[in-house]
Amino acid sequence: MTDTATLHKRQNQMMSGIYVLATPIGNLLDLSERAKLILSNCHLIFAEDTRITRKLLTLLNLKKPPLGIKSLHKFSEAKTVANLNIKKKMK
Fold this sequence. Notes:
The chain is mainly alpha-helical. It is about 45% helix and about 5% strand. The protein has helices at about 5-15, 35-40, 50-60, 75-90, and strands at about 45, 70. It is globular and about 40 Å long.
């Protein structure tokens, strides 16, 4: 296990950007420490199945990110990406 001081140091070193994480298929506890760190510091999560993502966050004692968990799969991809581009242009 990683101690709290080390985790805080790593949090400060995380670069902003987009992170792509694969979740374990069999055992959710097989998630890496780095993946847990990213999930604990992100502002928004896109997930194919939001129910599984909520279950994973609960299992890891992590709160839902400030901007929430959004569904992103082959049926919603075009609309979701289009909405992101509009919001980006508005900033």
